[in-house]
Amino acid sequence: MQEQTGGLVRPDVTASDAVAIARELWGVVVTASELGSNQDRNFLLTEPDGSRSVLRIDNPAFPDSARDAQHAALDAYRSAGVPVPAALPGGDGALTQRWRGFAVRRSAFAEGEAMVDAGYFAPVVLREFGSLAAASVNALAALEHPGLDRPQMWDMRVAADEARNLLPSIADPVLRDRVSPVITEAEEVLRSVAAELPVQPIHGDLTDDNVMGVRGADSRLHPRTVLDLGDLALGWRVAELAVCASSMLHHEPERPLRVLETIVAFHAEAPLSEAEARAVWPLIALRAALLVASGWRQLDIDGDNAYARERIAGEQAIFDAATAVPLVEAVEQVLAALGFPAAVSQPSVVQSAAPLAPLLPEFAGEVVVLDPGTESEGLASGAWLAPDAEETLVRGAFARGAAAAVMPYGVYRLTRTALDSTDAAATWPIGTAIHLPAGPPLPLAAPVSGRIVTSADGVMRIASANGWRCEIRGVQRSSEDGAEVAQGDAIGWLPESAVPRTLVVTVIAAGAETPAGGTGDAPLVEPDRVPAWRRHSIDPAGILGLPAMSQSDDAADELARRARIFASAQERYYERPPQIERGWRHHLVDTTGRAYVDMVNNVTGLGHGHPRVADAVNRQIRILNTNSRFLYRELAEYSERLLALLPERPSDAPGDRLDTVLLVNSGSEAVDLALRLAQAATGRKTIVSLREAYHGWTMASDAVTTSAYDNPDAFATRPDWVHVADVPNRFRGTYRGEETGPQYAADLAADLDRLAAEGRPVAGFICESVLGNAGGVMLPEGYLAEAYARVRGAGGLCIADEVQVGFGRMGSSFWGFEQSAVSPDIITIAKPMGNGYPIGGVITSKRVADALAAQGQFFSSAGGNPLSCRVGIAVLDAMAEEGLQENARVVGARLAEGFRALAERHRLIGPVHGEGLYLGVELVRDRESMEPAAAEAAAICERLRELGVIVQTTSERSNVLKIKPPLCLTARSADLVVAAVDRVLTEGW
Questions:
Q1: Are strands 949-950 and 595-598 parallel, antiparallel or unpaired?
Q2: Is there a smaller number of Cβ atoms within 10 Å at the N or the C end of the chain?
């Protein structure tokens, strides 16, 4: 039977008819509700006990042989382990029944959720779709059935003709004019490989609309059950992948190259030939064109089809995404991702001995190749953000005597990095820019042999016989169009000028479309486009006599390198971490020039790359760096500055006046020393720590670290000198709510009494002034004051661990313990003291500090040396001058307000903890039970990284987004972070 094309009118069957069909042919009593379909009728049937099934009324255009083939395919899928719903026989045992001339079938209901409207698909989901498409072709490869060989409009072998026939249905002339050339271009590429494309049975419509998903532990929808074999037929094997991949595009249409994840996953399990690899993207584009055209046609002939009308926008998004990248470039992306050779092989280039001589034969003088890259020393201290940063590099080279300054091909330009952006900027130049000072005209020679094909508007193009073209911008020509030139022939000149001049040289594959770019610089592309453009362009350095400087994104290689030398216990961020090699203020920049808002680096409190700290290191390291046994002024000066930051201590305050500083190298070392001081000063051993706490990695600081997240056996493996008390977490602790401080304090008092009765009186009580490891949870009102009083009453000392929460981070106070209006006996500090330079310290009273002498002399090889002290002083100076504590208060309040506003729209957000710029956004699956959304939190962090925000999780349950950025965070960046979180929670992760 010859099938119709150009759209089909659905069978005229109603929901009440579906109820009758189910009763008459299957003997079941049901209610029916219609499901969407372009050309058939589908109904969800529900029986009184809640059992569900699906009734399908086939379009009369489809023959019985096609249905029989579908049933055979279901068996093949099941044999291969591909989940499919079972076909349910009617009362007579047949799978296909007849009702008023229509073929009707019933199948089991596939549990799960529809994926077509699921929003964003994570890389793992994109890969799973590719694997499912591979499983489909593998399962069907051996299937033979006469019903498979049938003509139909969705067969991609005839898709170009079908789409072209449907073009008149597109009422929008602008859209029609966009679709038509896409059909033609895709058809031309496919024609060149069609004879090499394997044909076999394929599902033909294995898309997000025909796969049911199931929720994983990460709350993402993962593809599982394959539905609707209505388009099952013989077809190109690679079409199964292309159809599937095209349906991925609308889930984040502005980033179409993410679908390479699907393509690579398919290839891993059903390897593609080179011809198939070349066909993938043309088929994606052609499928998109056919979807758009057929969607308009379907509305033409079946205007009441709400399903078809709803799909129009999604189909348009698929088309826009499929055509956002030029087809020749997209094909090259696929070839590169799968490891196939480039479409056009790159010729070998013989290095010229004299710089620039092949292009400018009369040029004389020094040529300097500039470094505008992410690790450039010439772009320190934020110099790369200046609008004229590149011009400054050029002027500097001229000032040092250079006769030419070159911006090289293939070096990711830090100067083009975009801050506070969810999208990566175009940073990779596909050509070489040669800057020359003002001067007389210079003769221009052909750097390659070939034919001058066009030369206008200051652009000269030389087409080589090997399929490449050389473009030279900024010159005047002397050769005519069509002229054959040999390498070295005179072709024009660089005009005389009273201002500096620029020549831009690019060498590009003949079929590639030169990206848009400024007239005075090389065109640039975004990092995700580089794999194709590395193949579509050649570094002109070789033909110009310059050194090759081209860079790659080596993050994957660096990760593998680290894996070879790291222990499994050493943590890293992200599944696919970017390679970070630059930081400035509250931004991090990877090696491709992609910038991220850094929301986790509380170590660099001033911000990354601070010039005052760099200058302090540079100056002091050249003068003196020794140990604290020697006499020098920096140690006392820095210690006095730290003591001056302590709040006024009332005369009747308990405990001794804090007047002594001991400097070490880290927070772990500071906690270790604080514990020793408490034990030495009291002559006791027992230290009371709180449950779920983190204090460090040395033997002693780890002993009081009770976080099960960092050590699942922490609680059970504490040494006998550590007692673990209940954590006063008013959101997740034993007592919950605002007025729980006295209850937690009373429990601590009972612990202290019990310890004393056991002959283990307390030496010290250590507690973060704000529960940093929990995500910035503030202590209940009155808890710390009462706890300190109880500890002192029992003869112990009170240790405030300020390593994370102190040093201005609270905004409203310099120290975290000020939030509770208490005065500790010992304070530990570290992380932000050196802005990334390793400094730690302990502040206590002379009485407590002197007790250490009973255990011998105290000494730290690097603690308190002149260099660390000078860095510490520079940090304090910068904090004061830049008003960073006040910034923490203002911007922190803005962030907290933004997150709390999001909580009103997104149920996943629970409490928002903290103060200033130490915040925690707790993610929960249920606000009543507070079930932690740990997997979701991890997945959300991955998506936020894609959007340019660095956030990680914390807390015992790892379900809190920790917000502890450099204190210089701006309101603009804070707003971007809140907007990014909103986007992720709205679109998915």
A1: parallel
A2: N
List all residues 6 or more positions away from 174 whose beta carbon is below 8 Å from its beta carbon: none
| pLDDT higher than threshold 90 for residue 379 | yes
Q: Do the beta carbons of residue 771 and residue 960 sit within 8 Å?
A: no
**pLDDT, tens digit (0-9, with 9 covering 90-100), for 199-243:** 999 999 999 999 999 999 889 999 999 999 999 999 999 999 999
d(CA 390, CA 403): 17
What pLDDT, on the 0 to 100 scale, is given for residue 6? 53
Where does 173-232 show beta strands of DSSP type E?
199-202, 211-215, 221-226
Average the pLDDT over each of 228-242, 360-374, 557-571, 660-674 and give the range with the smallest value.
557-571
Helices and strands (DSSP H and E) totals, the chain: 25, 41
Task: Compute the distance between CA of residue 919 and CA of residue 922 in angstroms, rounded to an integer.
Answer: 10
The token pair at 761 is 């009186």
Please give the single-letter amino acid code of residue 597: V
Q: What is the pLDDT of residues 637-683, one digit of tens each?
A: 999 999 999 998 877 777 789 999 999 999 999 999 999 999 999 99
Q: Is the Cβ–Cβ distance between 939 and 218 less than 8 Å?
A: yes
| Mean pLDDT of the 468-472 span | 94
Question: How many Å separate Cα 297 from the centre of its chain?
Answer: 39
Question: Cα(179)–Cα(255) distance, rounded to whole angstroms?
Answer: 20
Residue/partner pairs of 337-340 with CB below 8 Å, 24 or more apart = 337/260, 337/263, 337/264, 337/531, 338/263, 338/264, 338/267, 338/272, 338/277, 340/274, 340/277
Q: Which of 450, 418, 208 is nearest to 311 (CA)?
A: 208
- Helix/strand/coil percentages in the chain, nearest 5: 40, 20, 40
**In the 8-state DSSP scheme, what is residue 426?**
-
Residues facing 43 on adjacent strands = 34, 55
How far is the C-alpha of 267 from the C-alpha of 532, rounded, in Å? 18
Q: Which residues contact 291 (CB under 8 A, 6 or more apart)?
A: 246, 315, 318, 319
Three-state DSSP at 765 gives: strand
**What letter represents residue 165's amino acid?**
N
Sign of the dihedral through C-alpha 443, 448, 449, 451: negative
Measured in whole angstroms, the distance separating CA 404 from the mean position of its chain's CA atoms is 39
Residue from 372, 815, 838 nearest 613 by CA? 838
How far apart (Å, rounded) are the C-alpha atoms in residues 270 and 258?
A: 20
Count CB-CB contacts under 10 A for residue 118. 17
Coil, strand, or helix at residue 854? helix
Instruction: Output b/e per residue, 355-365; b: 16+ Cβ within 10 A.
Output: bbbbbbeebee
Q: Is the pLDDT of residue 884 over 80?
A: yes
φ, ψ (nearest 5 deg) of residue 960: -115, 125
Tell me what the pLDDT averaged over the chain comes to: 94
> Taking Cα atoms as reference points, which of 102, 109, 65 lies closest to residue 87?
109
pLDDT digits 0-9 by tens, 164-184: 999 999 999 999 999 999 999
Interacting residues of 414 by C-beta distance below 8 A, sequence separation 6+: 372, 373, 374, 376, 379, 384, 427, 582, 589, 593
Residue identified by tokens 């503030």 is 778
Q: What pLDDT score was predicted for residue 1?
A: 31
* CA pair distance 260, 240, nearest whole angstrom: 15
Q: Which of 848, 686, 666, 828 is nearest to 751 (CA)?
A: 686
| pLDDT for position 288 | 98
- pLDDT at 2 > cutoff 60: no
Rounded to an integer, what distance in angstroms lies between the CA atom of residue 571 and that of residue 574? Answer: 10
What letters, b where the CB count within 10 A reaches 16 and e where it falls short, cover 166-201? bbebbeeeeebebbbebbebbbebbeebeeebeebb
- Predicted confidence (pLDDT) per residue in 817-853, tens digit: 999 999 999 999 999 999 999 999 999 999 999 999 8
- In DSSP terms, 477 is beta-bridged to 492
- Around Cβ 337, how many Cβ atoms within 10 Å? 18
Q: What is the pLDDT of residues 486-507, one digit of tens each?
A: 999 999 999 999 999 999 999 9
